C-alpha cells in the first residue's frame, strides 16, 4: 500500500479518535453537571417543601389559637364564630382533627348553665338563649360531620359528651363506625333528639348512666350491626324513647342495670335477628317498655326474668314468639 495513503489513513483515524474522546469527555462533563444540577434542584425542592410545611403548620396553629380564644369569649356571637372556625380547622387539618373535635366536645361539657326560667328578667333570658344557640350549633356541626355521605367525615373519631345536656340535637342518618363515643351520664331532659336511621356498625358508643327524663329521643330505624352500644345503668324515667323499626343484627347492645321507672320505651316493629341485646339486672318499676308487634323475634333479647315479665313490659304475642 502506498505509504502516503497509509499515513493519511492513520492521521484520519487519530483525528476521529480524538474527536470521539472529546465528545465522550464533553458528554461525561454534561452528565456530571446535570447530576449536580439535579441534586441542587432536589435539595431546593425539599427545602421549599419544608418551608411550606412549616408555614402551613404555623398558619394552622394560629388558626387553632384564634378559634380556641373565640370559644372562650364572654360574647356568644364570638363563641359562635369560634365554633365554626374550630370545625373548619378540623376539616382542613387531618393530623390534628381529633384535637379540634376534643375542643368542641369540651366546650359542650363545660357549658352547663341552668335555665333561669320563664320568670327571669328579659336580659337574663336572652343571654341564656344566646348561649344555648352556641351549644346547639356545636352539636349540629358535630352531627353533620357524622352523616353517612358527608364530604369531610369525622366518623371513626372519638367523641366525649359525658354529662352533656341534650335538649335538642339531630344525629339522624349518622354512622358510628369506630372510635369511642361517650354519652355517659348525658341528660335528655326535654325537647327532641333524633338518632333516626343512625347506624352503629363498629367502635363503642356509651349511653351508660344517661338520664332520659323528658322529651323524646328517637332511635327509630337505627341499625345496630356491630361494635358495642351501652345503655348500662341508664335511667328511663320520663318522656319517650323510641327504638321503633330498629334493626338489631350484630354486635352488642347492653341495657344491663338500666332503670325503667316512667315514660315509654318502645321497640314496636323492631327486628331482633342477631347480635346480643341484654337487659341483665335491669329494673322495671314503672312506665311502659313495649316489644309488641316486633317484626323479627328470631334472636330475642336477654331478660332478667324467667317466665312472667314485670308490669309495664309488653312482649310479642304467641304467634310471633312461635314464629
Q: Describe it for me?
A:
Helix content is 40%, strand content 25%. Helix 2 runs antiparallel to helix 3, helix 2 runs parallel beside helix 4 and helix 3 (97-110) runs antiparallel to helix 4. It has two domains: 49-144, no CATH class; 156-323. By secondary structure, it is of the alpha/beta class. The protein has helices at 3-71, 76-92, 97-110, 122-144, 318-322; strands at residues 159-160, 168-170, 175-182, 187-188, 192-194, 199-206, 211-212, 216-218, 223-230, 235-242, 247-254, 259-266, 271-278, 283-290, 313-314. The protein is elongated and about 125 Å long. The strands form two sheets. Strands 2, 4, 5, 7, 8, 10, 12, 14 and 15 form a nine-stranded parallel sheet that branches. It has five helices and 15 strands.
Q: Which residue ranges are poorly predicted, with pLDDT under 50 across at least 5 consecutive positions? A: none
Sheet of most strands: 9 strands, parallel
Oligomer: single chain
Roughly what fraction of the amino acids lie in strands? 25-35%
Provide the residue-averaged pLDDT. Answer: 89
Q: How many DSSP-defined strands?
A: 15
Summarize the structure.
With 323 residues, this protein is an alpha/beta fold. The protein contains 5 helices and 15 strands.
SSE topology sketch:
Elements: H1 3-71, H2 76-92, H3 97-110, H4 122-144, E1 159-160, E2 168-170, E3 175-182, E4 187-188, E5 192-194, E6 199-206, E7 211-212, E8 216-218, E9 223-230, E10 235-242, E11 247-254, E12 259-266, E13 271-278, E14 283-290, E15 313-314, H5 318-322
Amino acid at each position: 500500500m502506498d505509504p502516503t495513503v497509509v499515513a493519511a489513513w492513520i492521521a484520519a483515524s487519530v483525528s476521529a479518535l480524538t474527536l470521539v474522546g472529546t465528545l465522550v469527555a464533553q458528554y461525561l462533563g454534561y452528565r456530571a453537571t446535570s447530576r449536580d444540577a439535579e441534586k441542587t434542584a432536589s435539595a431546593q425542592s425539599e427545602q421549599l417543601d419544608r418551608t411550606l410545611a412549616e408555614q402551613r403548620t404555623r398558619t394552622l396553629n394560629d388558626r387553632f389559637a384564634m378559634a380556641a380564644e373565640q370559644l372562650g369569649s364572654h360574647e356568644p356571637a364570638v363563641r359562635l364564630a369560634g365554633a365554626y372556625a374550630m370545625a373548619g380547622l378540623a376539616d382542613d387539618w387531618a393530623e390534628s382533627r381529633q384535637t379540634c373535635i376534643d375542643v368542641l366536645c369540651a366546650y359542650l361539657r363545660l357549658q352547663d348553665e341552668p335555665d333561669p326560667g320563664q320568670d327571669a328578667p328579659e336580659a337574663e333570658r336572652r343571654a341564656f338563649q344566646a348561649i344555648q344557640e352556641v351549644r346547639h350549633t356545636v352539636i349540629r356541626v358535630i352531627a353533620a360531620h357524622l352523616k353517612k355521605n358527608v364530604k369531610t367525615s369525622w366518623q371513626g373519631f372519638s367523641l366525649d359528651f359525658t354529662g352533656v345536656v341534650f335538649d335538642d340535637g339531630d344525629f339522624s342518618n349518622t354512622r358510628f363506625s369506630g372510635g369511642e363515643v361517650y354519652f355517659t351520664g348525658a341528660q335528655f331532659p326535654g325537647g327532641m333528639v333524633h338518632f333516626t336511621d343512625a347506624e352503629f356498625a363498629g367502635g363503642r358508643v356509651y349511653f351508660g348512666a344517661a338520664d332520659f327524663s323528658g322529651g323524646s329521643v328517637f332511635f327509630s330505624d337505627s341499625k345496630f350491626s356491630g361494635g358495642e352500644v351501652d345503655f348500662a345503668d341508664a335511667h328511663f324515667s320520663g318522656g319517650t324513647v323510641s327504638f321503633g323499626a330498629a334493626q338489631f343484627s350484630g354486635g352488642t347492645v347492653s341495657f344491663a342495670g338500666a332503670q325503667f321507672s316512667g315514660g315509654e320505651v318502645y321497640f314496636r316493629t323492631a327486628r331482633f335477628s342477631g347480635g346480643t341485646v341484654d337487659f341483665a339486672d335491669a329494673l322495671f318499676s314503672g312506665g311502659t317498655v313495649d316489644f309488641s308487634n316486633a317484626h323479627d323475634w328470631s334472636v330475642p333479647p336477654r331478660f332478667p326474668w324467667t317466665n312472667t315479665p314485670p308490669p309495664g313490659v309488653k312482649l310479642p304475642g304467641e304467634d310471633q314468639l312461635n314464629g
